[in-house]
Amino acid sequence: MLEFIGQIKVKVSDKVFLKDPDSSDLGRSIIEHSIQLIHEIGFECFTFKKLGKQIGSPESTIYRYFENKHKLLLYLTAWYWAWLEYRLVFATANIDSAEERLKIAVEILTNPIQEDGEFAHVNEVILNQIVIAESFKAYHTRNVDEENKEGCFMVYKKLIKRVSEMVLAVNPEFKYPNTLISTVIEGAHHQEYFSRHLSFLTDKKKGEEDISEFFTHLVFNTIKTSQ
Amino acid sequence: MLEFIGQIKVKVSDKVFLKDPDSSDLGRSIIEHSIQLIHEIGFECFTFKKLGKQIGSPESTIYRYFENKHKLLLYLTAWYWAWLEYRLVFATANIDSAEERLKIAVEILTNPIQEDGEFAHVNEVILNQIVIAESFKAYHTRNVDEENKEGCFMVYKKLIKRVSEMVLAVNPEFKYPNTLISTVIEGAHHQEYFSRHLSFLTDKKKGEEDISEFFTHLVFNTIKTSQ
DNA sequence: GCAAAAGCGATAGTAATACTATTATATTTG
DNA sequence: CAAATATAATAGTATTACTATCGCTTTTGC
C-alpha cells in the first residue's frame, strides 16, 4: 500500500513544490494543517502567515516547500485526484462487465467521500470539501497554459483518461468520452456546492445521495443511444 | 427594445451596486472598460486603480458605483444572464412544439456568442469570455449565502427556472430539471474553457461547434428515457 | 434664478497581503 | 568532525483594497 502512495507522489510534477512535503514531518504538518485551515477560512483568506501560526513556524519556512499558496492548492488537488484514481483502480479490479465497471466508476466520482484511514496527515472528507469549493481556482488562472505544460495537471489527466477508456469499452463509437467524464466530475462537485449554497441551481437536497443516481442515468443514456 | 433593457436592469438587485452604472456616461464607461480590462489582464490582476487609469478617473470615483471589484463582477454576470434570457425569450416565442423550444434553448445556452449591437457599452462576445473564465468567482466566495439572500443571483435563478420549465414541458415526470440545466450551462462554459487550456478534459476542438450537439443529445436522452 | 445637494477629481493615508532577504542556530550527512 | 542542509527569527518591500477628506462643478428643486 505504501508503495502506492509513493506512486501517487511521483505522479505530481516536481514543479508543484520546491521541496517534497511528504519527505519530512514539517512538510506533512504543512499539508495536514493547510487542509484544516483552508477549509475553515477559505482559500482567499488563507495565508502562509496564518498557516505558520498553526504549525508554529514562520511563513518563510513554508515558502521553502511551496513557491506560493497557489502551488500548494495545486498539490492538494493533485493529491486528491491521485487518491481518487487509486480508489477507482481497487474498486473496478476483477470486474468483468464493462457496464458494471463504468457504473462503479461513476459512483466513485459522484458519491460522497468516506474517510480513508490510510493516510494519516490527510483528512479526505475535508479535502473533498476543499476540492468542491476551491479546485477550479487551481486551473482558472493566467498561468494555466504554462502550468499545464509543466505537467501540473498530469494526475487529473490520467484519471480522466482511465474513465474515458471505460466509456469506450461500453460503446467504442461514442464521440465525446472526455467531455462526458469531465462534465460528470465537475458537475457532481458543482451540484454538491449548489445544494449547500445556491439551491435554485439543483434538485439535490442536502445530505441526500440522489446526485449519483442522476449522473449514472445521464452517462448510460448518453452513451448507449446512437446519435 | 430600450424598455427591455430597463427590465434587465431592474432584475439586478440594488445590492450589487451603490449607484446604477447605467444612469450616467461615467457609469457606462466603467462597465465598458471593465469588460475590456478584465478580459485583457484577468479578474485577479484587475484593480479599480488600473480601471481608473483607463477611464481617466481616480479609483475613489469607481468606488462610488461599486463597493468593490467583486460586486462589479456580480453586476457583469447578472447583466449577462439577463441578456441571455432576453435572447431566449425572443428565440422561443411563437414556437408551438415543446421539444423544439427546448432544443432552441439548449442551443442558445451552449453555442458561441454573436455580438449584439443593441447595447453600445457592452461587448457581448468578450463578456461571454469573462463569464466563461471568471463567473464562478462570482459565487464561490465566503459571502455566497449572504449575497444569495440579498438577491444578487435572482437573474440567474430566473433563467434556470425558465429553461427548467421547458424541460418539464417535454417530460413532466423528470425529477432533475434544475440539476440538468445548471449542468448544461456550467458544463458548456467549462468545455469551452477546457478546449482552450486543458484539452485533455474535452473532445471539443478550438473553433468547432460540436459542443452544442453533445449537450442537445445529452439533454434529450436524459429526459426522454424513463428511469 | 438661486441655494442645496449630488457628482466628480485629486490627494493622502492605512492595514493586510504576498512575498524576499538576511542572519543565526540546530541538525543531519558524508 | 567538517560541511551542507533545515529551520527559526526578524526585517523589509511593493502592491492591493480600500477609506477619508477637500474643493470644484454640475444638477435639481422650489
- The gyration radius over C-alpha positions of chain A equals 18 Å
Number of continuous helical runs of chain A: 12
Estimate percent helicity of chain A.
Answer: 55-70%
Counted beta strands of chain A: 0
Major sheet description of chain A: none
Compute the average pLDDT of chain A: 91
Largest interface: A-B, 50 and 51 residues
Quaternary state of this entry equals homodimer
Query: Structural class of the secondary elements of chain A?
Result: mainly alpha
Spatial gap, N to C terminus of chain A: 43 Å
Give the H and E element order of chain A.
HHHHHHHHHHHH
What is the percentage of strand-forming residues of chain A? under 5%
Regions of chain A with pLDDT < 50 over 5+ consecutive residues? Answer: 1-8
Label the overall shape of chain A: globular
Q: Could you write a compact summary of the structure shown?
A:
Two copies of one chain form a homodimer. Chain A has 227 residues and is mainly α. Helix content of chain A is 68%, strand content 0%.
